[in-house]
Amino acid sequence: MASNYNLDKVNAIAEGDKDFVAVLVQTLLGELPEDAIDLQKAVNAVNYEQTYQVAHKMKPTIELFGLKHYDTLIEIQDWGKHSQTDKTVQSQLEVFIHSVNKALEEIKTDFNL
């Protein structure tokens, strides 16, 4: 049973089409790891614009698959959007990336990939 992601929205969109769910899962597994790396690079480089762009790109996927710490991604996005030079989001990034990695591992296991 999934604890790091939730397929309710995916299943609602798929309307029972298991092949479509599989395509969405494959797309997630193909894109999300790269996006997570790009987000880490942008935050580590203190590149506010890139951080904002990558986080903003990730939001729909994170929300669709019900991954934990969506609110943490929003914090990271806002840090980039508003160039918040007076704060850091390194700890939020670590929490978010750990959550993404756990969800990806769980999805691979659950879908025998």
Topology:
Layout: H1 8-14, H2 18-44, H3 48-64, H4 70-81, H5 90-110
Helix pairs in contact: 2-3, 2-5, 3-4, 4-5
User: So how many helices?
Assistant: 5
Provide the gyration radius in Å.
15 Å
Look at the helices and sheets and give the structural class. mainly alpha
Q: What would the average pLDDT be, to the nearest integer?
A: 95
The CATH class turns out to be: Mainly Alpha
CATH architecture: Up-down Bundle
Largest sheet: none
Named CATH topology: Four Helix Bundle (Hemerythrin (Met), subunit A)
Tally of distinct domains:
1
The helix fraction, in percent, is over 70%
Query: What is the total tally of β strands?
Result: 0
Shape: elongated
Strand content: under 5%
Gap between N and C termini, in Å?
16 Å
Order of helices and strands: HHHHH
Low-confidence stretches: none
Q: TL;DR of this structure?
A:
This protein has five helices and no strands. With 113 residues, the chain is mainly α.
Written description of the protein model:
74% of the residues lie in helices and 0% in strands. The chain is elongated and about 45 Å long. The chain has one domain: Up-down Bundle (Four Helix Bundle (Hemerythrin (Met), subunit A)), CATH 1.20.120. The longest helix has 27 residues. It is built from 5 helices and no strands. With 113 residues, the protein is mainly alpha-helical.
